[in-house]
Design a protein that fits this description.
Elements: H1 13-106, H2 109-137, E1 162-168, H3 178-184, H4 189-193, H5 196-210, E2 217-223, E3 227-229, E4 239-240, H6 244-254, H7 265-273, E5 281-286, H8 304-315, E6 324-328, H9 337-347, E7 352-353
Helix pairs in contact: 7-8
Domain VWFA: 163-288
InterPro entries: VWF_A, vWFA_dom_sf
Pfam family, one: VWA_2
Length: 360
């Protein structure tokens, strides 16, 4: 028997499978598209959030600096008010000056001439007073003013063509009493320079240089265990007194020296003997006999007799026939100093001075 032909139906199983696949594809595409859009929205939201945070930071920054801006504004307002007040005062002064100019222009020429003549007479009188003051000062190359502008009759021999000043800068120049020296010698250089005894020694040198003859030459040495010129680099050179700037510089440099160490007269006297040409006047400012010779002593202490022996050995190297003028500020515990230095001054035809504490 022949087989019947199968009829085609749109609702067959194969057709339904195709339709299901199509709907599934559409759903998948929808999900993919939706996910992509959500990602874009999320990225956009992050950008907006970053902008919001930046704006918030700017707002906070603005709030923080708002007070400073207000203070600056107030300060500017005050300065503006001050400037306006100053401008008004300047305008008033200008007006006053204009009024004075108008007054001057309105005066007679004869009155102007009389005023000028009176002014000329006053200037001539002031000139005469200055000349009289210069005559009183005499030949001093520098002015030295102490308490009450005092000067004492000292008997010091301040003349000569080549004057050498020897200033003791050992630790004993820190005080007149041993306990003061011990207490001060371990302090700072600034404190040492300000001690009363050292300042008195510096004033003495300043007073001496003010009395030097105008046409003479000089040198200033400080000494302790060694020696140095007041102006570094001028050792073994004679400086001109009429160079006032250089002389002032020498005095200023002495103010930078801080007393320290022991005293070696033998070393400084050897240096004096080596100068060429030799000095023809020596002024020695010290407070006692030496504590060592050319070498450092082996012990920590030294007796009065030993110091006198060191002194006698030192004066043997001094150049002959050169007067030594001694200015002594006696130190306690050195009983032979005054007599030995007095004998040195007398033997060399110099002078000896033990001044009071308020000199010069």
């Amino acid at each position: 028997m022949a087989r019947k032909n199968r009829r085609f139906s749109t609702f067959s199983l194969s057709f339904l499978d195709i339709m299901s696949c199509g709907f599934g594809a559409v759903a998948l595409i929808f999900l993919i598209i939706k996910h992509g859009s959500d990602h874009d929205i999320e990225a956009e939201n992050q950008d907006l959030a970053a902008e919001v945070n930046l704006l918030q930071e700017e707002v906070e920054y603005g709030r923080e600096h708002l007070v400073q801006a207000r203070n600056t504004l107030d300060s500017t307002s005050d300065e503006l008010a001050e400037a306006q007040g100053l401008a008004r005062r300047i305008i008033e002064e200008i007006e006053a000056v204009k009024g004075n100019i108008a007054e001057i222009d309105s005066t007679d020429e004869e009155d102007d001439i009389k005023r000028l003549q009176e002014k000329l007479k006053k200037l001539q009188q002031a000139k005469k007073e200055l000349e009289a003051e210069n005559e009183k000062l005499g030949n001093n190359v520098r002015k030295f003013v102490g308490d009450g502008d005092r000067q004492y009759l000292t008997g010091l021999r301040l003349g000569g063509d080549r004057i050498l000043v020897l200033l003791d800068s050992s630790a004993s120049m820190l005080g007149d009493e041993l306990i003061k020296v011990i207490r001060t010698r371990n302090m700072s250089s600034r404190v040492k320079r300000q001690t009363e005894k050292w300042q008195r020694a510096l004033r003495t040198v300043s007073w001496l240089t003010a009395q030097f003859p105008q046409d003479s030459r000089y040198q200033i040495y400080t000494f302790n265990t060694g020696f140095r010129a007041a102006i570094a680099g001028t050792e073994d050179r004679w400086l001109n007194v009429d160079d006032h700037d250089q002389l002032d510089k020498a005095i200023d440099e002495l103010g930078k020296v801080a007393p320290e160490n022991g005293t070696s007269l033998e070393r400084i006297f050897n240096a004096v003997s080596a100068m060429s040409p030799l000095p023809d006047n020596i002024i020695l400012i010290t407070d006692g006999l030496p504590t060592q010779g050319m070498k450092k002593p082996s012990g920590d202490t030294i007796s009065g007799n030993d110091r006198r022996d060191l002194f006698k050995r030192a004066i043997k190297v001094l150049p002959k026939e050169v007067p030594v003028n001694v200015i002594l500020s006696p130190m306690e515990g050195d009983p032979f100093a005054a007599s030995e230095f007095w004998k040195l001054a007398m033997d060399t035809q110099g002078s000896f001075l033990a001044p009071s504490r308020d000199w010069p």
